[in-house]
Amino acid sequence: MTLLIAFALVCVAAADLQGGLNPGRPRWPRLPEGVKPMDDSKIVGGATTTIDKFPYQVAMYKDGNFICGGELIRTNVVLTAAHCVHRYENSPSRFEIRVGSTTYSGGTRHRVSRVNKHSSYNSYTTDYDVATMILSSSVSINTYTQLVTMASGGSSYSGYTGTVSGWGTTSEDGNISRNLRYVNVAIMSNVQCADVLGSGVITNRMMCAGYPDGGKDACQGDSGGPLVINHSMSNPSNSVLVGIVSWGYGCARPQSPGIYSRVTVLRGWIDAYS
Ligand SMILES: *[C@@H]1O[C@H](CO)[C@@H](O)[C@H](O)[C@H]1NC(C)=O
Ligand SMILES: *[C@@H]1O[C@H](CO)[C@@H](O)[C@H](O)[C@H]1NC(C)=O
């Protein structure tokens, strides 16, 4: 019942946002200096958590500003979204990765020595929205810093509950969150998603998750972050990465699921560029 009440309140808030779907744009973060975000992306309708529950979550900075999330897939490799690095893939020194912190500004800092953006990434359709960042130094594995297992195989994960985390905004025009947040979202099939969003928008490299009434979603600043299944607060190593926060029409709107890069389909590329 508590869940339903909280959900209803969020829906009221979401209903205040003026309708009409925006063109699809990557979930750009809101920048800390108050620069107008190019797009919509943070955790809406979720709860705060701590990094030991999501030890694979990292924060990405560009030119000293927090811009995106990411996840550790090797001790020296971070997986993220292509739109987080787009146009700067040849300038790895402008990026910095922070690991092991509940707040996006803390933790251990690591320089980036190489950025690999998928060569088929399309900034208009947001197709192939995947990139890897090679760190200059390997992270130390401990309670607060761990690798995430990536999904493989042919499952669509339709019907699974996914868990998405990040420091993104808690509403479409909100500020980024100081503490890490997470929310559970229902993964749907690409056929169901196309029924909601229209055909021709959702490619095989994407997956959708959300609820018909909205209210729970990733938002600005969550881009590049993890969507996992089998998440367990007591045993985060059970988590299996199935998606990367990519884009959406606003955040948490009714009939507008969040869209993620589909890890199983992109797995060959990820392994080759790790
Ligand atoms: C965002 O942060 C600014 C500066 O701290 C504050 O003035 C503003 O009220 C905040 N906006 C929201 C929606 O919380
Ligand atoms: C998720 O957990 C269930 C139950 O423990 C297990 O059977 C299943 O294999 C797990 N899924 C993946 C992809 O590891």
Automatic annotation (TrEMBL):
Coiled coil: none annotated. Gene3D superfamilies: Trypsin-like serine proteases. Keywords: Disulfide bond, Hydrolase, Protease, Serine protease, Signal. Pfam families: Trypsin. Residues 1-15 form the signal peptide. InterPro entries: Peptidase_S1_PA, Peptidase_S1_PA_chymotrypsin, Peptidase_S1A, Trypsin_dom, TRYPSIN_HIS, TRYPSIN_SER. The keyword Protease applies. Residues 43-274 form the Peptidase S1 domain. This is Trypsin alpha-like. The lineage of its organism: Eukaryota, Metazoa, Ecdysozoa, Scalidophora, Priapulida.
